[in-house]
Amino acid sequence: MAKNLITRDTLQPGEWYDDDTYYQILLVAPRKKRTEGQYIETTILAQKRGEFKKYLLDEKTQQNLKDYIPEREDINNKNIASYLPSPGVVFPKGFLNALFPDKSSKNPSIETNNFYDPIRTLLHTRKISQLIAKTWHCYLEAKASELWYDFVNGKWDEIDSDILDGLIAREIFFFDQQSSPDHLVPKNLDVYYPLNGEQSGEKARFLILPSSKGWQGITLSLLMAGQAYYEIKKGGQTYYHQISQPILSTGEIVIKYGLEVTWDKFKGDIKELKVEPGKSSIAYEAIIPYPPIPSEINLPIENIAKWSQAKDEGGEFPFYQKNEDDKSYLVGVEYFSPPYPYIPLSCT
Questions:
Q1: pLDDT tens per residue, range 86-123
Q2: pLDDT-derived band at 313, boundaries 50, 70, 90
Q3: Record's superkingdom (predicted)?
Q4: Averaged pLDDT, 190-219
């Protein structure tokens, strides 16, 4: 790993779970000073993983993450730290056992390169496409009721969390790529660029740096990694609600992909970036399409909802299917792309 991503030359095995390793999350809140077309305030919070143990997840988020629970004994799965680093999309154990039936295989890299990696990439495209469809559906639902008024006026506690998640994600897609987040915590950049004399005693940092090209899309990157939240007050306690479940991993948004949004296309693109020797940045720029919502004639809201809510396994548009007779899995990936026109397919 490049030197300016972390304070030492390498990230040691297992160190990403160290309480002293630094991570970022995105905190979203209603905009205090109303500005037409800008309804959220964004804060990038960077601190040690151990400090995120104090950030308790709400019950809905815990339920949404039931399939993402890490197999580690040092966590309780009820706080933000439990899901750092982000794993990105996950497959059920049965699927992985079917893909890698013999753990003693002499060529595990062959199975990984030929099956796991490409299938995971296709699942990325499906999940991002579904997220875009969700933002469309939630916006149309809110505009047809009083929920849009509640959203723009900061009355978020009046809105069902599923709808609110979609509305917030929509605002993040619209975030100006040339703008920085509204707030940085801490305000100085010492977390990102410690003084040379302090580096020897510092722990690793798994962060998107302000000097990285990935910084221009950091709000969307953190959303895609499941590292974006808003606060919920309940019974005098503050909880954190995850806006979207992980799609990309922390490593992918820090090292591999910088995200950018285009608003006038239905087709995404991936560009390989020029990497200057001695300077680290992300390797690829992924341009995600977020076009205007098609008319009801071209794309009925019912179809948008069906795609946004489709399950990976079972239902009308499965990504994979399970054979109950022999517990095997069929991966035809027929529905890695939407079955309806006008819904964008992402490019990662």
A1: 999 988 877 777 777 665 555 667 767 777 888 899 99
A2: confident
A3: Bacteria
A4: 76
The rounded distance, in Å, linking the Cα atoms of 240 and 229 is 6
Report how far residue 337's alpha carbon sits from residue 124's, in angstroms, rounded to the nearest whole number.
Answer: 10
Q: Is the pLDDT of residue 73 over 90?
A: no
Question: Is 344:266 a contact under the CB 8 Å cutoff?
Answer: yes
180-218 per-residue burial string, b: 16 or more CB within 10 A, e: under 16: ebbebeeeeeebbeeeeeeeeeebbbbbbbeebbbbbbb
Residue 200 has pLDDT above 50, yes or no: no
Q: Which of 257, 211, 335 has its CA nearest to residue 86?
A: 257
- Give which of 347, 168, 109 is closest to 247, Cα–Cα: 347
Name every residue whose Cβ is closer than 8 Å to that of residue 166 and which is 6 or more positions away in sequence.
134, 135, 137, 138, 139
Give the residue extent of every domain in the chain.
Answer: 15-96+108-330
From CA 321, how far away is CA 115, in angstroms rounded? 16
CA distance 326 to 324: 6
Phi-psi region of 84 (alpha: psi -120 to 50; beta: other; left: phi over 0): beta
Asked if residue 28 has pLDDT above 60, the reply is yes
Nearest to 318 by CA among 339, 343, 300: 339
- Reported as type and span, the H/E element at residue 220 is helix 218-224
